[in-house]
Amino acid sequence: MSPVTVRDARRDDLPVIHRMIHELATFEGMPDGPQLSVADLEEDGFDSSPPWYFLLIAECEGEIVGYAMCNRAYSSWTRRAFYLEDLYVVPSRRRAGVGRVLLQELCARALASGVRRVDWHVAASNSAARRFYARLGARDLQLSEGRLALRLDAPRIEAVAHGHLLNADNVLCD
After folding, report:
1. Which of 79, 86, 108, 170 has its CA 20 to 30 A from that of 55?
2. Which terms are listed as keywords in the entry (predicted)?
């Protein structure tokens, strides 16, 4: 097998990445989950300033075999952080070190940027990924820190923004 190389994504990679995002969603049992288009990826990653995300592309012999989609975050505890939204390797290249190479590059960039932590989620049902991450030394925050990963989706974001809280108490300043 040829060596895997990692590089930054280019605009012309986005149709392949879009397809892979849907492959990942199908693998995770949510084929209708992704609600974004190639145009959204282009706007948010290449036309926004600053970009909403960055993509690392894993290639082998000129073929894209995986990607890591990340965004920059900020922690009041550790300052700079990366959030790894997706790490995906095509099925034919899994267990060949592609994910390791992508994470190595991500961590090298984290070091160069002064990033003190990289966070992500993994499906509880994905035992192969959980074993892989454990070998890297990743901690399960729910187990180690008693934290849960929570989310407000778009309808609830809108509701909260307009003051429509569920079982809300009155907030008063005296």
Report:
1. 79
2. Acyltransferase, Transferase
- Please name the residues in contact with 18: beta carbons below 8 A apart, sequence gap of 6 or more: 36, 37, 38, 41
How many C-beta atoms lie closer than 10 Å to residue 105's C-beta? 19
**What would the CATH number be for the domain defined by 5-146?**
3.40.630.30
Is 83 tagged catalytic? Answer: no
Q: Give the predicted TM-score (pTM) of the model.
A: 0.86
Residue 158: φ, ψ to 5°: -65, -45
List pLDDT tens digits, range 129-170.
888 888 888 888 777 767 767 677 778 788 778 877 776 555
Q: Where are the domains of the chain?
A: 5-146
Q: What's the chain's length in residues?
A: 174
